[in-house]
Amino acid sequence: MTLDLMGGRRLLLAGSRLGWIWVLALAIAIVLLIVLYREERRLVTRRAGLFLLSLRLLVAAALVLALFEPIAERTYRETLKGRVIVAVDVSESMTTADPARPAEAGAKLAKVLGLSTGEAVAGLSRREVARRLIDGPGSVLSRLEAEHVVETFTFARQTAPASPKSAADSLKAPTRPGDPALSETNWDQALERALEAGSKVAPCIGVVLLSDGQRNSPADPMPTVDRLAAHGVPVYSVLIGSTAPPQDAAIAAVKAPESVYRGDVATIEATIKVDGYAGKDVGVTLERAGASPLRQVVRAPARANAARPVVSFSVPLEVAGTSLLSIAVEPLAGDVRRDNDRRTIAIQVADDKARVLLVDGEARWEFRYIRNALERDTRVALKTVVFHQPPASGALVRSYAAEVPPKPDANRNGPDPLGDFDAIIVGDVGSGEVSSELWARLEAFVAERGGTLILSVGPRSWGALAHQETARKLLPVTELHVVASSDEQGGALSDADGNSDQRALPRGASIRPLAVGVEASSWPMLQLDSDPDRNRATWAKLPRMPWLIAGRAKPGARTLAAAGEDDTAAVIAAQPYGLGKVLWLGTDGTWRWRFRTGDRYHHRFWGQVARWAAGARLAVGNAHVRFGAAKARYQEGERIELQARISEGEPGVDLELLVAAKIFKADAKTGAAGGAPIAIVPLRAVAGQPRTFGGDAVSLPAGRYVMRLDVPQLAEKLGLSGEGARSDSRIPEAVFDVVSRESSEIVELGAARDQVDQLASATGGRVLADHEADELPKLLHARTRQTTRVVETTLWDQPAYLLMFLGLLTVEWVSRKRLGLP
C-alpha cells in the first residue's frame, strides 16, 4: 500500500498484505485497553486513567504500525555527469602555422580564442591554437569541465595522461627537432581510454580529439573504432589547421640501396614536394663527402593534385664503409618549414668483389652473354669453365678452363677450391659432364660453405638434373616440364617502334615476376626498374622465351617468377639449403633480353644475381654455422628477422635444439657488443628448411645492434664460446642497424579531414573546424542524461522507532507504579 505525500514523498506499507490481521489485532487491543481503563477507574482519578489509556493506545498503535513495515520514499531528479575523453595532439606536425587559412575562418577563430586586436591568427602554430582551446577560465575545455567529468590526454607516437595545465604546458614548450617521440601521430591509444572501465556514475559519453588529422601510424585503427561504435561512444574531432597546405618545399621520400660494392654507382631517387610553387623551378642537390655536390632542377606541377616530381642521382661510391648522402631542396622564399628540406641517408659500401664461377657444357649464346656481362662488371671476379672448348678462330680465340678446379686428394687436407667462390653458375651441362662427385662437392659448397648455386638450365641439362639424386635435392622445384609456346601466350614480337623491316622474335612464353611490394626488395634481380609499375611493364615487354622449363616450388622454396599467368609454374625460384641457397632459372635465353636494348636489362639482371648471391648470405659465422639478421638495416618498429643455419655435417641438430639470439647494444667506439644483452630471442626450427632456426626481434629503438648466437649444447663444437674473457673477441658477431621510421609528419602539412571524417562516420560523432570549437559544449550537453534517484528509508526497524516504543512502555510502567497500580 502506498500513500502519496507532498514534495515527492511517499509512504509505503510493505506489510499491508496482512493488514486486516493487524487492524483486527489493533481493534482487539483497543477493546481490552478500554476494559482495563474501566477497571482501573475505581482506583485512580479520571485524569490519571485517561493518561494511562492514552499511553497504552500509543504503544499498541506503534506496535501495529511496525507490523505494517512502513518505508518512507523520496524521489530525486538529477543530471548525470558523463565522462569525456579529451585527447590533444602534441606531435611535430602541430608546430606548423597556417598562413593560407581563409580570412573568414581566421576571423571566427580569433573570436573563439579571444585574441586581442594586435594578434594575428596566421602567425599562430597549431600547437598554440590547441593550447588556447584548453587553457584559461573561458576556454572550451573549462566549459566542458563544468558539466562533465573530463579526462585529458596528450598523444603523438604514445599517449600519456595529463591535466589541462600540463597539457597546455606541453603545447607551449618548444619541441626538439627530429624527436622520435613526436615524429608520429597515433591517436589509437587515446581512443582506447574511452573503453576502459570508468566510474559507474560517469559513463563515457564521447571522445574529443584536438588534432590536425595527420595520423601516420602504421597500426590499423579500425578494431578500436569498431569497439567505440559498438559501445555507442562518438568521436568529436576538432580539426586544427587549414586543409589548404601552406607554401612549402620538402624531400618527401628517398629510395636508395642499403648496401653496394665499392666502385658501384648507386641510384638515389628523391620525391620532391613543392606546395604553393606551381610552375616554378626548384633546385635539388645531393651532397657527399669528398666530392662536389650533384644538382638537378625540377619544375613544380601546375596542378595541386598532380604527381610529385622525382629526381634521380647516379652516385659512384669509391670509399668502403658507411657513406652518408644528403639530399636537399635549395632555399625558396616563403617556405614555412625549413626542417623538412633535407634528408640524410646511409649506404654501406663493401670493399670486396663477388667471386663467381661460371660452368657450362659449351660456349653457347647464353654462356657468352652471361660471361660478357659479368666480366665487364668491376665488382665481379669471374672464372669460367667450358667442358667442350669452342674451335680456335685465329686471333679471336678465347681459352676457357676445361675442368672444375679439382678437390685435394686424400693425402692433402686442404679446403675444396670451390669454397673460394661466392656463387657458382651451372649452365647447360649434360649428364656425363658433371659427375656424382662434383655434385657432392656442389652440395657441400652450398650446405657447408654457405655459397650460392645458380642453375641456369638448357635443353641438355634439365633431363640430367631430374635423374641425379643430389641435383634433385638441390633443386628448388619438382615436376619439371617444358612450357609450350602458344598464340595465347604471344605471337611474334611486334616492332614497338613501328619499323616493319625489323626482325621479329619467334612467339613464346612470358616470364612474370611474382614478388611485389616490400618483399620485392629481397630479390634485386627482379628489379629492372626502380618504380614498381614501370618494373612490371618492363617485364611484360621483354622478348618472350621460345623455350622454358618450369616446375612446382618445393615446400620452403619461393617462386620468384612464373611462366605466363600460371603462378604455380616456377621459372625462377630460390630456396635456402644448409648454410647457403640455390637459385633456379628455367631458361637458357636471357640473352634475348638484349633485343633492341643492349646491356640495359640483361646486364642489370645478372649483375644483381651476382650481388644477391654474394651479399645475401647470413652475415657472419664459420664452417659450422652462419647467422645474422635478414637485412642490414631495419626501420624502427619493423619486425627484425633473425636466423641461424647449422652445417649439414654437425651432429645433434634436431627440432628440440635450444637456439637463441642474444642482442647487444653496439659499443659507440668499437662497434662490438657492449654490456649485458638487452634482449634474448628464442630461435625455433623453420618448417621446410632443415637445420635452420629463426625468430623475430621487435620494439628495438633506433641504433646499432650486435647479435651473438647461443647454442648451449653445441657452443664449443660450433665455435660460439671463448675460452676466457680475453677470447670474447673471437666469438662471431652479426651487426644490424635500426633507423628511425619514415614518417610524413613534417612533410604533409595540410590538415587532413579524411581519417577524422571516418571516425565521425563510424561512431556517430562529428568533425568541427577549429573556429567551430565553441559548438563542442552544446554537442556534449545534448548527450547528458537526466536520472531519477529514489531513496528509501525503513521506519519500523530504525533505532529511533525502537527507542520511542520502549520510551512509551517505560513512561506507562513508571506512571502505573506511582499511582499504586499493580
Commentary on this structure:
The chain has 5 domains: 2-78 and 790-818, no CATH class; 82-109 and 116-245 and 749-783, Rossmann fold, CATH 3.40.50.410; 248-350, Sandwich (Immunoglobulin-like), CATH 2.60.40.10; 354-490 and 505-615, Rossmann fold; 620-739, Macroglobulin (MG2) domain (Immunoglobulin-like), CATH 2.60.40.1930. A hairpin with a 3-residue loop joins β5 and β6. Mean pLDDT is 83; it is low at 487-503 and 723-729. It is of the alpha/beta class and 822 residues long. The radius of gyration is 42 Å and the shape is elongated.
Attribute tags:
17 helices, 9-stranded mixed β-sheet, Immunoglobulin-like, alpha/beta, single chain, 5 domains, 8-stranded mixed β-sheet, 822 residues, Rossmann fold, 24% helix
Report the mean per-residue pLDDT as an integer: 83
So, CATH architecture of the largest domain?
Answer: 3-Layer(aba) Sandwich
Number of domains: 5
Distance between the termini: 40 Å
| CATH fold name of the largest domain | Rossmann fold
**Low-confidence region ranges:** 487-503, 723-729
Q: How many strands?
A: 37
Tell me the strand order in the biggest sheet: 27-28-30-33-32-31-34-35-29
Rg, Cα atoms, Å? 42 Å
Q: Bin the strand percentage.
A: 25-35%
CATH level 4 superfamily of the largest domain: Class I glutamine amidotransferase (GATase) domain
Q: Characterize the biggest β-sheet.
A: 9 strands, mixed
Supply the number of helical segments.
17
- Range of helix content: 10-25%
Shape: elongated
Helix- and strand-based class? alpha/beta
**Level-1 CATH class name of the largest domain:** Alpha Beta
